[in-house]
Amino acid sequence: RPAARPGGQEKSVAMSWFYMAMQREPVVMWSCFIGALGIALPVVVPPIRESFGSTKTVPPPNPHAVAKALRGGN
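-> structure tokens emitted (74 positions)
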């Protein structure tokens, strides 16, 4: 039995599982990380934007005007 570490044995078990999973299936682990980041960003970004004072949003362009401009019309 390994010596007890500060913080408890649960932490070392979780970390050893993480390292083992990263060695065996790195693509799956990175996919989970990117997915969690995608879920967290909508929760984290708006308060950060509000702290910078950029609460004014720019309306999206009219799709018909964009299509007309791409076709070269005036």
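The mean pLDDT is 83.
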